[in-house]
UniProtKB/TrEMBL annotation:
<dbReference type="InterPro" id="IPR004036">
    <property type="entry name" value="Endonuclease-III-like_CS2"/>
</dbReference>
<dbReference type="InterPro" id="IPR000445">
    <property type="entry name" value="HhH_motif"/>
</dbReference>
<dbReference type="GO" id="GO:0000703">
    <property type="term" value="F:oxidized pyrimidine nucleobase lesion DNA N-glycosylase activity"/>
</dbReference>
<keyword id="KW-0479">Metal-binding</keyword>
<dbReference type="GO" id="GO:0140078">
    <property type="term" value="F:class I DNA-(apurinic or apyrimidinic site) endonuclease activity"/>
</dbReference>
<dbReference type="Pfam" id="PF00633">
    <property type="entry name" value="HHH"/>
</dbReference>
<keyword id="KW-0238">DNA-binding</keyword>
<keyword id="KW-0378">Hydrolase</keyword>
<feature type="domain" description="HhH-GPD">
    <location>
        <begin position="22"/>
        <end position="169"/>
    </location>
</feature>
<dbReference type="InterPro" id="IPR023170">
    <property type="entry name" value="HhH_base_excis_C"/>
</dbReference>
<feature type="binding site">
    <location>
        <position position="171"/>
    </location>
    <ligand>
        <name>[4Fe-4S] cluster</name>
    </ligand>
</feature>
<keyword id="KW-0540">Nuclease</keyword>
<dbReference type="InterPro" id="IPR005759">
    <property type="entry name" value="Nth"/>
</dbReference>
<keyword id="KW-0326">Glycosidase</keyword>
<dbReference type="Pfam" id="PF00730">
    <property type="entry name" value="HhH-GPD"/>
</dbReference>
<dbReference type="GO" id="GO:0003677">
    <property type="term" value="F:DNA binding"/>
</dbReference>
<dbReference type="InterPro" id="IPR003265">
    <property type="entry name" value="HhH-GPD_domain"/>
</dbReference>
Length: 194
């Protein structure tokens, strides 16, 4: 089964940022469709800053927390214009200062938009890294820190897409498909009932 994980286009930092904000707590196919609808109307930070939250709600529904995201996105567009002249910042501290941007979103932007090494930890990366026995962590920040010490930098950017694909197909949260998992021989199966 092919994983529905979708890579965002490189060198389009604005699109990567907005799509990553929309992606939180949302499945990839829903994020892709919502992003397309939004980008038709708001292809840049200026257009996004001028949209009313009601319009954004209609465009991005049914992404998770669509009402909150609809309030945040015009502010995000305004901040990009006011602080960075409409450009997306490329550093973790600057990205974290934007509304709706946490470490996962910031690290996705750093890797996908700017091609820099970072590890974005979402629910799949958290679960699969622990099941494999690579880390023993409870929070994404702990997992990110542990993985950055464990993995070579050249693998950081690829870790999220690889583990998202594995988490969506084999290493599912409930009833993982361990017998057919491509990495079963290296997996410690932590937290998996026999």
């Amino acid at each position: 089964m092919a994983a529905p994980v979708k890579r965002m286009p490189r060198r389009h930092p604005y699109r990567v940022l907005v799509a990553a904000v929309l992606s939180t707590r949302t499945q990839d196919p829903v994020t892709t469709a919502a992003s397309r609808r939004l980008f038709r109307v708001a292809p840049n930070p200026l257009a996004l800053s001028r949209l009313r939250p009601e319009r954004i709600r209609r465009l991005v529904y049914p992404v998770g927390f669509y009402r909150t995201k609809a309030r945040i996105l015009p502010r995000l567009g305004r901040m990009l214009l006011e602080r960075w002249g409409g450009r997306v910042p490329a550093t973790l501290p600057e990205l974290l200062s934007l509304p709706g941007v946490g470490r996962k979103v910031a690290n996705i932007v750093i890797t996908q938009a700017f091609g820099q090494p970072a590890i974005a930890v979402d629910t799949h990366v958290q679960r699969v890294s622990n099941r494999l026995g690579l880390v023993r962590t409870r929070r994404p920040e702990q997992t990110e820190s542990a993985l950055t010490q464990l993995l070579p930098r050249r693998l950081w950017a690829e870790w999220n897409p690889l583990l998202v694909a594995l988490g969506q197909t084999s290493c599912r949260p409930i009833r993982p498909l361990c017998p057919t998992c491509p990495v079963r021989r290296w997996c410690m199966r932590r937290g998996v009932n026999p």
